[in-house]
Amino acid sequence: EKALANVPGVTSASVNLATEQATVTRTSSTDPATLEAAIVKAGYALRHTAPQQAGTDPREAETKKLIRLTIISLLLTLPVFITEMGSHLIPALHDWVMMSVGMERSWQIQFVLTTLVLFGPGLSFFQKGVPNLIRLTPDMNSLVAIGAIAAWSYSVVATFAPSAMPANAVNVYYEAAAVIVTLVLLGRTLESRAKGKTSDAIKRLIRLSPKTARVIRNDVVTEVDISSVRPGDVVDIRPGEKIPVDGRVVEGHSYVDESMITGEPVPVEKTTGAKVTGGTINKTGAFRFKAEKVGTNTVLAQIIRMVQTAQGAKLPIQGMVDRITGWFVPAVIASALITCLVWLIICPSPALILSLSNALALS
Fold first, then answer.
1. How far apart are CA 334 and CA 162, in angstroms?
2. Residues 199 and 263 grouped into a single domain
């Protein structure tokens, strides 16, 4: 929202996280290409809305991908977490690891597993977080990337070059790096599933509208795409069919199930002059009606729009939360850097190792 709002000529910008759509109010002089460039520059991917093909659902595909990555990350992280943290909590496990595997071999195994986590399932954090960090617009991806790579790098030195560090500073934090990535992936999986469920209501409403309509043109009944129906067209409706658009009956007699609008299960009688609503279901008779409201002007389209608006609406407190989160990541990074510098200045040798350890703990 901030990136769009800063574009000259934009009067307001709102992002609906549930539907992943941005609504922008702009002046006529504002070029849409400028808005697209601002979105890409802010580090977000841009996808133009288009009719979805049957069986394709970007949200469902993304959720499945996140579930798969989370499971892989979890399976790789559990051995690292159990081996390292379990050894601290359970002396018997520590003794078993030392006797059967050995500390050096244990750290090497943890290195392999954690590396697979970071540069496998966790690769997206670096692909998104590092560019944002370079653009001086760090986000949560940047924070995860910094924390994970810092813990991993420190541990790599302790594993393969322990002589470069004081003896009391030779420790590994592989479990921290792996757990960070796994927990954030789990959170994003749950978030994606929640977004998918909230959008199901809109999908069900969209499915209420038929894809085609039989329109009478030049005294011939022609089946056309619903987007081709225009106000004034006479539409032919048969028993059991869904009414495609809003209009008024001009010929025939029937009963229409309007429960999707009114909630009443009893079909409503329709005769000449009666109004019909798109998405409702014709029951027994056949009739023809003149289209009055089509496309985004129908009652069903307005209901869908209201649901989308409600899902994307923000409470006043959310504005304050957005402002806080905008400063959170830079504040954490700045605090870690300050901590590192302070420990470098005031601490005795090995100041570098101690400063990095404390900065790592803070990040």
1. 29
2. no
- Per the confidence metrics, is the pTM higher than 0.70? no
DSSP category for residue 242: B
What count of Cα atoms within 13 Å lies in the side-chain half-sphere of residue 344? 9
Residue 170: strand, helix, or coil: coil
116 close to 167: Cβ distance less than 8 angstroms = no
**CA 112 to CA 127: how far, in whole Å?**
21
- 263 in a domain, yes or no? yes
Bridge partners of 225, per DSSP, are: 212
Residue 354: C-alpha distances to residues 27, 145, 332, 333 (Å): 55, 21, 18, 17
Phi, psi of 223 (to 5 degrees): -85, 120
Q: How many structural domains compose the chain?
A: 3
Q: What pLDDT is stored for residue 322 in this prediction?
A: 63
Tracing tokens 């048969």 back to the chain, one arrives at 238
Name 25's bridge partners: 12
Distance CA 179, CA 104 (A): 21
**Digit-coded pLDDT (tens) for 129-144:** 888 888 777 778 888 8
How confident is the chain (363 residues) per 10-residue block, as mean pLDDT? Answer: 80 70 80 82 68 52 92 96 88 87 91 96 91 80 88 91 80 92 94 76 77 90 91 93 94 92 89 93 93 90 80 65 73 85 80 74 67
What does the alpha-carbon distance between residue 183 and residue 217 come to, in Å, rounded to a whole number? Answer: 60
Identify the CATH number of the domain in which residue 15 sits.
3.30.70.100
Range of the domain at 1: 1-42
Q: 266, 282, 298: which is the final residue of a domain? A: 298
Q: Say whether both 84 and 166 belong to one domain.
A: yes
Secondary structure in 3-state letters for 244-258: CCEEEEEEECEEEEC
Q: Please check whether residue 210 is in contact with residue 226, taking contact to mean a CB–CB distance below 8 angstroms.
A: yes
The token duo for 306 is: 């209201």
Residue 53 confidence (pLDDT): 39
Tokens matching residue 258: 């309007």
Residues 101, 103, 104, CA angle at the centre, nearest 5°? Answer: 95
Find all residues with CB under 8 Å of 240, minimum gap 6, and list them: 281, 282, 283
